Amino acid sequence: MSFKDLLIGLGIGLVIALIVYIWQRIGRADAEKKSKAEIAKLKGMLADRMDVESEGLKKIKDENEQLKKMNENLRVTNAALMQKPGRAEVQRLQVYQTAVDRLVINSPGFGAAWQSALKESEEEFENTYNGTQAFWKKILPGKTNAKLIQNPDVVDEQ
Q1: N or C end of the chain, less CB within 10 A?
Q2: pTM above 0.85, yes or no
């Protein structure tokens, strides 16, 4: 082997090494380009998802605040309605109705008397809205036979 053969072999080896090196660089550049494109795509998807989630979270928070306000308004309205005049009277009438229902069930003689008195009162009440009786009832106050005040100092005027 001569020195010339050694240089030719070294030259061929260097050319092959250079070709392999260039081939590797081209392959690595393509891989880097693809990975950069993939990273950019993933970053875009992540940004989009974060935007969507933040919008959804904002909508949920806004809806939650709106529901809290509605709840507070309903609570205030309910409290105001409970304080309106007449509400206590309606509750008292419900208590009286329950007591009357129990008396009708538990007292044998009370039921018939109660039913007849109730029917007469209903007829009288309906007659106040018909004809001249309604006119006179509006002008003159009604009179009852019921004792409203149970005081021994008060003497009946009958």
Answers
A1: C
A2: no
Per-residue tokens: 22 = 């260039």
Residues 6+ apart with CB under 8 A from 137: 128
**Chain segment 60-96, per-residue pLDDT in tens:** 999 999 999 999 999 898 888 777 767 677 777 778 8
CA–CA distance, 139 with 132 (Å, rounded to integer): 11
DSSP string, 76-101: HHHHHHHHSTTHHHHHHHHHHHHHHH
- Let me know: does 58 contact 66? Beta carbons within 8 Å: no
Closest C-alpha to 99, from 86, 88, 110: 110
